[in-house]
Amino acid sequence: MSQKKMSSTKHTPQATYNTVTYVLGGIAFVVVVIVIVVAIMWQSGSDAPRNDGYGTVKNPEVELSLPGDGVVQLARPGAQRVIDVYEDAMCPFCGDLEAKHGQELAQKIDEGVVSVNYHLVNFLDPQSASGDYSTRAVAASHCVAATENARVYSAFHGGLFDSEFRPGEGADSDRTDAELAELARSSGASELATECIASGAQRDAAVTDANTGRDALAASGARGTPGVLVDGQVVDALGDSEWLASIN
After folding, report:
1. What is the dihedral of CA 188, 112, 74, 109, to 10 degrees?
2. Terminal CA-to-CA distance of the chain, rounded, Å?
3. How far apart (Å, rounded) are the C-alpha atoms in residues 158 and 131?
4. What is the pLDDT of residue 27?
5. Taking the CB of the first residue and of the last residue of the chain, which one, N or C, has fewer CB atoms within 10 A?
6. What is the rounded distance in angstroms from the CA atom of residue 217 to the CA atom of residue 226?
């Protein structure tokens, strides 16, 4: 029996990936990188202050009024749209809201587009080093609102939520009444306001009004602070960058 001749030809495996595959892979990688970069830029842009450089309320025609229960209203006569803002002076998300939309809101007030009702509450007292910082901030707001004009109050309110002034939750220290008084003074408040803050004269009223504000917030349908309502309807003020720009 003759033996079959064995072939000596070697099988050489071919590369699975060719040049076209590498090019397509490179393009896909570049696309992914671009998408990530654009997403980061978009997110950074969405958190940027709106109307940056405008500052706080400056129009002398804006009036400050106190409708009751500790609410502070800033508006030019005839403003048609009503915005209610519920905030705690220690709330980091409230600070984010003020940083992003505070200047935009001030301009809308100055232009007579909106009337704004500020409701300060005290949810976060237990998270402050003193145990009552949020309440004392409400009291300070009462003192400024009772003695000053809309421009001074707006400047004080903006300073209260500034990240350089606002205490952190669970921090080892917060702000004293003397520091709250100094903030009022630097915002243009008179000695009448600063003495009211330093003495704690409005503290009892602040407790009552903050509790009323908490009840009103719960009844509004908002889930917490910051709670923002436009003409009585809750809006997603942190998630929707255009909520204020769309109000005319």
Report:
1. -60
2. 102
3. 23
4. 54
5. N
6. 10
* 38 phi, psi to nearest 5 deg: -65, -40
Separation CA 180–CA 187 (nearest Å):
11
Amino acid at residue number 110 = D
Contacts of residue 237, defined as CB under 8 A and 6 or more positions apart, other chains included, come to 97, 101, 226, 228, 243, 244
Two structure tokens written together for 234:
């809750």
**Angle between helices 133-147 and 191-199 in degrees, nearest 10:** 150
> Distance (Å, rounded) from C-alpha 160 to C-alpha 23?
55
Q: What number of H helices and E strands is found in the chain? A: 7, 6
Question: pTM to 2 decimals?
Answer: 0.81
What's the order of all strands across the beta sheet hosting 81-88?
Answer: 63-68, 71-75, 114-121, 81-88, 227-230, 233-234
Residues of the chain with pLDDT under 70: 1-46
SS3 label, residue 67: strand
Q: Report residue 158 as tokens.
A: 């903006």
